[in-house]
Design brief:
Number of strands: 0
Radius of gyration: 22 Å
Largest sheet: none
Strand content: under 5%
Number of helices: 21
Structural class: mainly alpha
Distance between the termini: 29 Å
Shape: globular
Amino acid sequence: MFLQAFRGTVKASANFKASADAEVLHKAMKGLGTDEAAILQLLTARSNAQRQEIKASYKTLFGKDLVHDLKGELGGKFETLVVALMTPPLTYDVTSLHHAIKGAGTDEKVLVEILASRTPQQVKDIIAAYKTEYDHDLEKDICGDTSGHFQRLLVILLQVTLILSSFLVTSLLLLHQKCFAFFQASRQTGIQEANIESDAQVSFREKLCNNPEWFFSVFDAYTKLSGYEMEESIKRETSGSLRALLLAVVKCARSVPSYFAETLYYAMKGAGTDDDTLIRVMVTRCEVDMLDIRAAFRRMFACSLHSMIKGDTNGDYRKTLLLLCGGDDA
């Protein structure tokens, strides 16, 4: 349960030479017109770490910033996607969180997705990098921009994931008392009125650290006692951002790839496309577990991830996304 799978579709190139790649990109942007095909083919065939080496080599060879030049040559969603690919993963998460908090209004979807799905070490690194980049405390910024139980649960995720994996936090959030006691409290007053922070957190933390398999048996016990799946109870008893956060934590507890498969599906389903979410997930998961996300997507829905991207996007933006997807599971 604690093993981190490396099931990405984008892998490091075996025959990699940063200077040669920098030359290819410079040629693609030199003179009249831009060779977008050369740019997207190269960048999707290199790991993020290799792209950082290309960026440094480009600066050495041509005295220019590669990302700045790409922005000047590209446009629209394709530009946004390429710039995301050129950003180190930690920097991308930190920047996404900062924009979610400090922009016009709060993008709660970004807060939920990142904090519920990242590993304990990633959360720890995000907190440190946020402090370095913005000279602000992430927890304080989140508290200043959110409120109520949603805020309290976000803070718990920031604090507790330094000790436990984020998927184990579900037990601390929902099951800090006995399953039956929680069920009674939720039936009588609703989850929003439940005492989320309790002295029992300490004993539960010890229980989970010593026997993490207990986490799943608790889910089963809750279902038997209440007659409802955990997700169903959350939907019945909560709403808005609190519901989204609780569901995200539970879904990540069950399967991170399935969580992202569902996230991608609803980013494209219906009228319009949530391109910000589509880009964020495809970029951040293409080197981690995209193969598993694709498999979960095909299992959960009546089409493949590849086919849905193909039908919902166009142009160089679509071509790049499909290369990140890595294949069709039709």
